[in-house]
Write a structure and sequence with these properties.
Chain B: Keywords: Endoplasmic reticulum, Glycosyltransferase, Membrane, Signal, Transferase, Transmembrane, Transmembrane helix. The structure holds 2 protein chains of 2 kinds. Chain A is an all-alpha fold. Chain A contains 21 helices and no strands. In chain A, α2 packs parallel to α7 and α17 runs antiparallel to α18. The longest helix of chain B has 38 residues. Classes of the chains: A mainly alpha, B mainly alpha.
């Protein structure tokens, strides 16, 4: 009984939260699933029954393999477990095969892979400092962050109803962010490189990583005023980072290079012929522009996180063939910022509410309507009430923030008492100690933020 | 965090779990010719909408009582009529006379599940929230945790949203009754309880404690003055509510008698199918159902039932208290479940509701009981293909109770309310100090047995000669657990009042 008490007892709120959300995911097993279910079943079949040389050429089904090789290997490993559930799902000719055992296996595989996401959230919580010790459990930033990440509405409905494997991929991304926060830059770079070879959509945020690693890892020292010390550039570090990325890419693309299939692989991954280079670069150009503008001023992991969110948002706004699910790429990292500063929390609330609402058309069947409404209400009410309690706001100040946003294009600085809440103050949080950037850049940046929120909403 | 935000979140979690369970199969899905309870409810909508009131309970060419004839009191019929009007508006094919028999479609399932959700939302959930808010001597956080645990109770969710029934209506009305009577709104409380009885006659299991508690209150106020006035008012309320519900059936004597015959089918025998009750378990060793004649069975079950519940009821009449009332509800309902005539396994919900009400006072034993009650429904749930939701909701409930009430830290004699009992026993047996540890071991054994039996039922096939082996084992084990709980609850009722009186003497 004593062992029971220790195992089940006080303070293990994290396990209770993780277990609770896992049980909710199990309850979502019989819900509607989209064509993505058939996509992944087809990939299980392709990787299991065909040799590697055929993986990126197989086209029996319309859902051809268009993720990088690591994901293909992942499906290959899964297929070896799948054969104990239902052998028929691994037949490439069985299009739209969805027996109850297939459904059970696929759903359980998503739920199981979320273990990586839970671990990543655990690591992220370690990076959050719980300010005043002795506060109630439900008001601690760690608790709120765990709920905002593990019980994220968007992730729940996209992964466990619509059907995708975003959970563990975002787990890899959050893990790399956590490692960067913990100053374990090589591991952070490694995890991100691995992530890129699982799903190449994360290329959108690669500039943020590149710039941050360059600034914080490759330049080893700062001047007293915080700006970069140019002569502290470490070639060893650059080379070791490059080596990590190179080795990961070699592991992933190596076999296909040997088989001379690289062009085919790339044509599957980036399925646009001439439009690709022009359009696909556009968000990166913007992100790159914004990021480069701040390359000298990005200091600290929090600045990196802001840059990452900015890249994700700009890619969402201007990217080619962007799915509504891509809003999660901005929402999840922003959660980490929201529990630390009141201003970030207010932006997070608007982003998350509108972003999640924009996911509604993803589930269009009648039985799932109450589920998405209930889960959305649950998440929205929780996030507003918990963040409000954490920062002890009054709604009047937030309303002021809303009114002030329309004056963003004016060159006048915001009133002092207001600095805490308006998004205008983002630059003030970037913590740079030298002169503010020139007004032209500033206005462009601000207009970009303003437009992105209006367009997203 | 502010109280109302937390409460809203908890209610939303309850609703989410309910709706996700409702996505699963229902009783009798795709199983002609009789189907199941789902078809029964649809059929009642058809009957009440298309036939005049006088024909609802009678056998006729339009109304074949053998095919799910109405066997609940009039309020169920009126509820079905209301649902039928909505169904007519959406798709008349669902309730067309004769031609809609066995109608099954996704849209119809959605409609039926929505009616359950709306009834739950309007009646049961507000009652639970208000009840927990009215609890005394506990913090706001504990009240909200209490709401979460009660809303996550798997038995009610699986039967109402899985198997398909409207238990939340009758249990909700009964809960309003408990609330009213505990807060001294006796007339409203008894009105609500009468509505509950008129919805499902099984609520009569709860009627004796209500009667004894209100009688006790009248005695306390003095039978010569205010007490008598209260008694008269209560009698009038009860009679008026019954008359109101049964009005269309009081026009002719034959109508009333026929309804009563449908509600209390004494011809059907001591028990039907497998149920976790004494008679069914005894039947394993000695086939009493076949040996004894029908009227002897009736008398025997009557005697056993009333003998087992009499002490608690007398105690309640002499010393009416809110806590005693709730505990007597438990023990009375449990006595009826174990010893009464024609008990269905779903009637365990009538015991579970009062146990949910004492969850905050005796968390360990209540959680244990509620787990056993869900386990006793296993054969029924497996028939309806509800294994996954039942396992998941049971685990969710268990985790909620463990984290909210830290039940494993509350296993001392004091916490289990057995202190006065063990002190009395120690006068004769000085070595009786192991009560708490014994109960913990029993809990462990019980849980292990339940888990093993569940695994066996799901994975193994029963032997050829004994095809019902696992169902009978489940019933037998549950029955043993229930007997233990009957003894336990009776002990704490009897010894609790004693200590109350002693304390009064001291002070």
């Amino acid at each position: 009984m004593a062992a029971f008490t220790i195992a089940a007892g006080t303070g293990n709120w994290f396990s209770a939260l993780a277990l609770g959300v896992t049980l909710l995911k199990c309850l979502l097993i019989p819900t509607y699933h989209s064509t993505d279910f058939e996509v992944h079943r087809n990939w299980l079949a392709i990787t299991h029954s065909l040799p590697i040389s055929q993986w990126y050429y197989e086209a029996t089904s319309e859902w051809t393999l268009d993720y990088p090789p690591f994901f293909a290997w992942f499906e290959y490993i899964l297929s070896h477990v799948a054969k104990y559930f239902d052998q028929e799902m691994l037949n490439v000719r069985n299009l739209n095969y969805s027996s109850s055992r297939t459904l059970l296996f696929q759903r359980f595989s998503v739920i199981f892979m979320d273990v990586l996401f839970v671990y990543a959230v655990h690591e992220c919580c370690k990076c959050i400092d719980g300010k005043k010790v002795g506060k109630e459990l439900t008001e601690k930033p760690k608790f709120i962050l765990s709920v905002l990440l593990m019980w994220n509405f968007g992730l729940l409905i996209v992964d466990h109803i619509h059907f995708q494997y975003n959970g563990f991929l975002f787990g890899l991304m959050l893990l790399s962010i956590a490692r960067l926060f913990q100053k374990r830059h090589m591991e952070g770079a490694f995890f991100f490189a691995v992530l890129l070879h699982f799903k190449h959509i994360y290329l959108y945020v690669a500039p943020a990583y590149g710039v941050y690693l360059l600034r914080s890892y490759c330049f080893t020292a700062n001047k007293p005023d915080g700006s970069v010390r140019w002569n502290s550039f470490s070639f060893v570090r650059v080379i070791s980072l490059g080596l990590v990325v190179f080795l990961v890419s070699a592991l992933s693309l190596g076999p296909f290079l040997a088989l001379n299939q690289l062009p085919q692989v790339f044509s599957r991954l980036f399925p646009f012929k001439r439009g690709l280079c022009h359009a696909y670069w556009a968000p990166n150009f913007w992100a790159l522009y914004n990021a480069l503008d701040k390359v000298l001023s990005v200091i600290g992991p929090r600045g990196f996180l802001r840059c990452l969110t900015l890249c994700a948002l700009s890619s969402f706004m201007f990217g080619w063939h962007v799915h509504e699910k891509a809003i999660l790429l901005a929402i999840l990292p922003m959660s980490l910022l929201s529990v630390q500063k009141a201003g970030d929390a207010s932006i997070f609330l608007i982003l998350t509410t509108t972003g999640h609402y924009s996911l509604f058309p993803l589930l269009f069947t009648a039985p799932e309507l109450p589920i998405k409404i209930l889960l959305m209400l649950l998440f929205t009410i929780y996030s507003i009430s918990s963040l409000k309690t954490l920062f002890r706001w009054s709604f009047t100040l937030v309303a002021q923030a809303g009114v002030q946003w329309r004056d963003l294009s004016s060159p006048h600085p915001p009133p002092t008492g207001f600095k805490q809440f308006s998004c205008l103050c983002l630059p003030s949080y970037w913590d740079y100690r030298h002169a503010p950037p020139c007004p032209a850049n500033f206005c462009l940046f601000v207009c970009f933020w303003r437009r992105s929120f209006i367009l997203v909403a | 965090m502010e109280k109302w935000y937390l409460m809203t979140i908890v209610v939303l979690i309850g609703l989410t779990v309910r709706w996700t369970v409702s996505l699963n199969s229902y009783s009798g899905a795709g199983k002609p010719p009789m189907f199941g309870d789902y078809e029964a409810q649809r059929h009642w909508q058809e009957i009440t909408f298309n036939l005049p009131v006088k024909q609802w309970y009678f056998n006729s060419s339009d109304n074949n009582l053998q095919y799910w004839g109405l066997d609940y009191p009039p309020l169920t019929a009126y509820h079905s009529l209301l649902c039928a009007y909505v169904a007519k508006f959406i798709n008349p094919d669902w309730i067309a006379l004769h031609t809609s028999r066995g109608y099954e479609s996704q849209a119809h399932k959605l409609f039926m599940r929505t009616t359950v959700l709306i009834a739950d939302l309007l009646i049961y959930i507000p009652a639970v929230v208000l009840y927990c808010c009215s609890l005394k001597d506990i913090s706001t956080k504990k009240k909200i945790a209490n709401v979460l645990c009660i809303l996550l109770y798997p038995g009610l969710i699986l039967i109402d949203y899985g198997h398909f029934q409207y238990n939340s209506v009758s249990l909700g009305f009964a809960l309003w009754g408990v609330l009213g009577v505990s807060c001294d709104w006796d007339l409203l409380g008894s009105l609500a309880f009468c509505l509950a009885i008129n919805y499902k006659q099984m609520e009569l299991y709860h009627s004796l404690p209500f009667f004894c508690f209100l009688l006790g209150k009248c005695f306390k106020k003095g039978l010569k003055g205010k007490g008598f006035v209260l008694l008269v008012k209560l009698a009038c309320t009860v009679v008026a509510s019954f008359v109101l519900c049964w009005l269309p059936f009081f026009t002719e004597r034959e109508q009333t008698l026929q309804v009563l015959r449908r509600l209390f089918p004494v011809d059907r025998g001591l028990f039907e199918d497998k149920v976790a009750n004494i008679w069914c378990s005894f039947n394993v060793f000695l086939k009493i159902r076949d040996i004894l004649p029908r009227h002897i069975q009736l008398i025997m079950s009557f005697c056993f039932t009333f003998l087992s519940l009499l002490p608690a009821c007398i105690r309640l009449t002499l010393q009416p208290s809110s806590k005693g009332f709730r505990l007597t509800l438990v023990s009375c309902a449990l006595s009826f479940f174990l010893f009464s005539f024609q008990v269905h396994e779903k009637s365990i919900l009538l015991v579970s509701l009062p146990v949910c009400l004492v969850l905050s006072e005796i968390p360990f034993m209540s959680t244990w009981f509620l787990l056993v009650s869900t386990f006793s429904l296993l054969p029924l749930l497996l028939k309806d293909e509800l294994l996954m939701p039942s396992v998941v909701t049971t685990m969710a409930f268990f985790i909620a109770c463990v984290t909210s009430f830290s039940i494993f830290e509350k296993t001392s004699e004091e916490e289990l309310q057995l202190k006065s009992f063990s002190i009395s026993v120690r006068k004769y047996l000085p070595c009786f100090t192991f009560l708490s540890r014994m109960i913990q071991y029993l809990f462990l054994i019980s849980v292990i047995t339940m888990v093993l039996l569940t695994l066996m039922t799901v994975t193994l096939d029963p032997p050829q000669k004994l095809p019902d082996l696992f169902s009978v084992l489940v019933c037998f084990v549950s029955c043993l657990n229930f007997l233990f709980f009957l003894v336990y609850f009776n002990i704490i009722i009897m010894w609790d009042s004693k200590s109350g009186r002693n304390q009064k003497k001291i002070s």
